[in-house]
Specification:
InterPro entries: aa-tRNA-synth_I_CS (IPR001412), Glu-Q_tRNA(Asp)_Synthase (IPR022380), Glu/Gln-tRNA-synth (IPR000924), Glu/Gln-tRNA-synth_Ib_cat-dom (IPR020058), GluQ/Sye (IPR049940), Rossmann-like_a/b/a_fold (IPR014729). It is built from eleven helices and twelve strands. It has 306 residues and is α/β, with parallel strands linked by helices. It folds into two domains: 152 residues, HUPs (Rossmann fold, 3-Layer(aba) Sandwich), CATH 3.40.50; 140 residues, 3-Layer(aba) Sandwich (Rossmann fold). The chain has a five-stranded parallel beta sheet. Helix 1 crosses helix 9, helix 1 packs across helix 10 and helix 6 crosses helix 7.
C-alpha cells in the first residue's frame, strides 16, 4: 500500500444490516483498491436513514468476511461545515437557486411527455424574489438546486466504458437543510483522496451529475467501476425481505462467513475461500457484467460452491 497510489472506498448508508449484495460490492471495492496498492477507506453515509446499531453491525460484517480498511471511519454527519462551504462556493458563482417544488409537483413535472425522463425541468429557476417570498409565506421550505449549465456529461467506467449521462439541476441541500447525497459524495471523495469509486451499478446514472459537480468545484474526477447488483428471484434488487440475505441470517442456517465469501467469489467467477484468495485470483476484466440472481429460499444452499 502506498498513499501516493490513491484510495478506494466503500460508503455504506447505516440504514440496516448488509445483505449479500452489499457484501459483494464491498468485497469488490476492497479487492479493486488492494489490487492496485491503494488505501481502502470506509465512509459512513449517515445524513439520512440511520438505524441504531447498524453502523457497528455493518463494520463487524466487513471484518467477518475478511475485509480491512485504513484509518478511522469517516462519518458524513461530522462533516457538515465542508458541505456548507462547497454549497456557498457554488452559490457565490451564481450556480444555485432555491426550489420550492413539492415532491408531488416534481413527480408530475418529471413524468411529463417532454424533457428528459426524471430530470428536474427547472421550474423554480426563474422565480422572482416576490414569488419566493410568497412560497415562504405559505410555509414552504426551499431546497437548493444546482443551476446546471449543461444537460449531459460523459464519464469513463472500467466496466461500462464511456458513459454519457444526464445532468440536471440536482438538489444540493434538501428542504430540511441537510446536504444532499450527490453533493456530499463529491466533497468527501475529494477530501479523502479517493480516486477510485467501485459501487453498485444502480448508481451509474447519477455519476455524470457527480462528476460534473466535481468539475464545478475544481475537484478531480475519480475513476469509476460500477459493478452488477444482486437480484432476487423476481429480478428485483435484493432486499431484506428476500429471506436469509444477511450474514446473521446465514449464520442461523449454519452457513459461516467463510462459506458466504466462497459463494460471493463463486458468483464473480472466482474459486476462493477467503477474501485474500479472492484478491489474488480475481481479474477485473473478466468479472460478470450481468447481475447475480439468487434462488428463492435464501440462496446459498443453491449457490454455494461444491
Ligand atoms: N451510500 C450509498 C449507498 O449505500 C453509496 C454511495 C456511493 O458509493 O457513492 O447506496
Amino acid at each position: 500500500m502506498n498513499a501516493s497510489l490513491g484510495a478506494g472506498r466503500y460508503a455504506p448508508s447505516p440504514s440496516g444490516d448488509f445483505h449479500l449484495g452489499n457484501l459483494r460490492t464491498a468485497l469488490l471495492a476492497w479487492a479493486f483498491a488492494r489490487a492496485d496498492g491503494k488505501r481502502f477507506l470506509l465512509r459512513v453515509e449517515d445524513l439520512d436513514r440511520v438505524r441504531r446499531g447498524a453502523e457497528q453491525r455493518q463494520l463487524d460484517d466487513l471484518t467477518a468476511i475478511g475485509l480491512d480498511w485504513d484509518g478511522p471511519v469517516l462519518r458524513q454527519s461530522e462533516r457538515l461545515p465542508h458541505y456548507r462551504q462547497a454549497i456557498d462556493r457554488l452559490t457565490e458563482a451564481g450556480l444555485t437557486y432555491e426550489c420550492f417544488c413539492t415532491r408531488r409537483e416534481i413527480q408530475q413535472a418529471t413524468s411529463a411527455p417532454h424533457g428528459p425522463m426524471g430530470a428536474y425541468p427547472g421550474t423554480c429557476r426563474t422565480l422572482t424574489s416576490s414569488q419566493r417570498a410568497e412560497f415562504r409565506a405559505q410555509g414552504r421550505r426551499a431546497a437548493l438546486r444546482l443551476r446546471a449549465r449543461r444537460t449531459q456529461f460523459e464519464i469513463v467506467d472500467e466496466l461500462h466504458g464511456d458513459y454519457l449521462g444526464q445532468v440536471d439541476d440536482v438538489v444540493l441541500r434538501r428542504g430540511d437543510g441537510i446536504p444532499a447525497y450527490n453533493l456530499a459524495v463529491v466533497v468527501d471523495d475529494a477530501a479523502q483522496g479517493v480516486d477510485q469509486v467501485v459501487r453498485g451499478d444502480d448508481l451509474l446514472a447519477s455519476t455524470p451529475r457527480q462528476a460534473y459537480l466535481a468539475t464545478l468545484l475544481d475537484l478531480p474526477i475519480p475513476r469509476y467501476a460500477h459493478v452488477p447488483l444482486v437480484l432476487n428471484a423476481t429480478g428485483a434488487r435484493l432486499a431484506k425481505r428476500d429471506g436469509a440475505v444477511t450474514l446473521a441470517d446465514q449464520r442461523e442456517l449454519g452457513i459461516t462467513p467463510t462459506q458466504v465469501v466462497t459463494a460471493l467469489a463463486h458468483s464473480l467467477g472466482v474459486r476462493a475461500q477467503t477474501s485474500a484468495q479472492f484478491l489474488e485470483r480475481f481479474d477485473r476484466a473478466r468479472l460478470p457484467r450481468e447481475p447475480w440472481v439468487l434462488g428463492t429460499n435464501g440462496l446459498l444452499q443453491h449457490d454455494r460452491c461444491p
